[in-house]
Amino acid sequence: MAGPELIATLRFDGAGLIPAVAQDWLDGAVLMVAWMNREAIERSLATGEVHYWSRSRQELWHKGATSGHFQKLRGLRYDCDADVLLLTIEQVGQVACHTGARSCFYEEGETATPGGPDALPPPADVCTELARVINGRRERPEPGSYTNKLLEGGDNRILKKIGEESAEFVMACKDDDPAAIAGEAADLIFHVQVALAHHGVDWRRVQEVLAERRGAPRRE
Question: Please, which residues have CB within 8 angstroms of residue 84's CB and are 6 or more apart in sequence?
């Protein structure tokens, strides 16, 4: 992570502020946008928890101090013009918005909504979006859905398909066919995610395990 010396590189506006985009550390979802001044950046780097500058209250704002929804700072970058920050954060409680929504970016229509826990989730990486669709099928079955047929068949049907897709992926690799490899890998990931949904294991937990393994001691 960048150190305090980066502050001299940044371009603050006339009020001494710079916009900061907070992005989830696992799925890349944009959770909120706020403002920081030099003190907020210094405090964030020193404590490991994000601090912003509240323009309405004209004071330093320790995110989560009141709600308990702290943001653990995992990375900080700035853009090519050095006038916008990108914060990679671990959002405690999975709630970044004051309405109780995961992200402040839940509106997509002309009519404003109240937000809250049932608000539209923010766009994320394609595997996270796929997992949402699969879990949606589990919770709200649709007639004729292939995903629902798999879920209704339980482990017998799901695991059989994982075995078939694994073999097809292996054969595509043996044939050294990039297009087929990509296609079979996508099929395999889909069926693995169906198995996860069937057993109630969230895709985010898989992402967390992968993140935990990154930087771990090398295996012999």
Answer: 18, 19, 20, 21, 78
Q: Which tokens sit at 19? A: 């916009």
SS3 state of residue 31: strand
Closest CA to 208 of 114, 45, 94: 94
DSSP 122-146: PP--HHHHHHHHHHHHHHS--TT-H
* DSSP single-letter state for residue 203: H
Instruction: Provide the whole-model pTM.
Output: 0.89
| pLDDT band per the 50, 70, 90 thresholds, residue 77 | very high
Q: How far apart are CA 215 and CA 16, in angstroms?
A: 37
217: confidence class by pLDDT, cuts 50, 70, 90: confident
d(CA 84, CA 77): 9
Cβ atoms 21, 33 nearer than 8 A: yes
